Amino acid sequence: MPINLDMIEKWDREDSLSKYREEFYLLKDSIYMDGNSLGLLSKRAEQSLLSMLDSWKKRGIDGWTSGEEPWFYLAEKLGEMSAPLVGARSEEVIVTGSTTTNLHQLLATFYIPDAERTKIVSDELNFPSDIYAIQSILSLKGYKPEEHLIAIKSRDGHTIDEEDIIASLKEDVALLILPTVLYRSGQLFNIEKITKIAHEKGIIVGWDGCHSVGTIPHKFHDWNVDFAYWCNYKYLNSGPGGVGSLFVHEKHFNKTPGLMGWFGSDKQKQFDMEHTFLKAKNSGAYQIGTPHIFSMAPLLGALQMFNEIGMEKLRVKSLHMTKIMMSLIEQELSHFGFKIINPKEDTSRGGHISILHPEAARICKALKEHRVVPDFRKPNIIRLAPVALYNTYQDAYDTVIILKEIMQNKEYEKFTNEREVVA
Question: Which top EC class is named for this enzyme in its record (predicted)?
């Protein structure tokens, strides 16, 4: 049955999460479809940042140990709040660093090559920063990245066949690092299955959760994931450049972090200022430097909503919205050369839709002129992310109808088909 406006209005009326839309600062007269790159500001996140500023204003240095949210314990507090989102125990998650610095820390800890195992497996569609970090650790250990980094090939240029991942797990592999969701196509991997098989082959497994945490529930502890890392500024709405997070399974708490720093110390011993590193007995050990308090503060307010709702409800709405949007694209845009490249099965789809078109860069510029905010990925991918917390079914419908109008009128032709400095 074709999707019509009556159906769209019905889904919006019945949406139990619709009240949370009112908590966000929505862009005026715009449809925001880029929450998989940068989430919108919520009033709670704004308030938690302002409260932290107020603490500095009124307490000075005493803000570290006093007030409603003492800064000295903020990373642990946020880790505890984040843990339910990824299926972790509270002590297994810490908010610290950035995606890439956290990966460097985890590589320095978990990549321990020996005479038999020297190689790291990743994939050729991974986000470049992850690959740079892997190349860096290999070089530091004296190995040539072109020989010891195994990048799994894509059969179609958009997705990775899980059987190819499994086939790459040979006896010379020390470490497997994959994204939970491929950033370009939105493919979701079977984290539990891949982790289990890799462990059976004696391989340590780490996951990049940047494009899944906050929109897909995980069970990192139960799935026996060794480590994971992610940013908080996409689906978790912590603000541009917000502090990242990492997960280390409790079975590894006996390890000493590869990169030691004073904020990884046992908090009771930290200010003894000894030159012997006494690490924290949990994931807090993986902190390096002093926390960036004001970059962490918005996450304090942002996470409240996730813990109120629960990841399962967010996932149900996200899956339904992306399903409806894919149906609308096929229904309204089938004659304009668009191709949906994200998996259509619920079990394999992340939180965004990826569509292929040779004029993608120009089309994205035309969408922005219509005050629809998409995301472009070189050379020809348009990403659209209907976010469960603040997007409506009407947003999804209107985006497709505006896209149809752009194509019918060839409005995209007045733009150059190349990305801006920031895509």
Answer: hydrolase
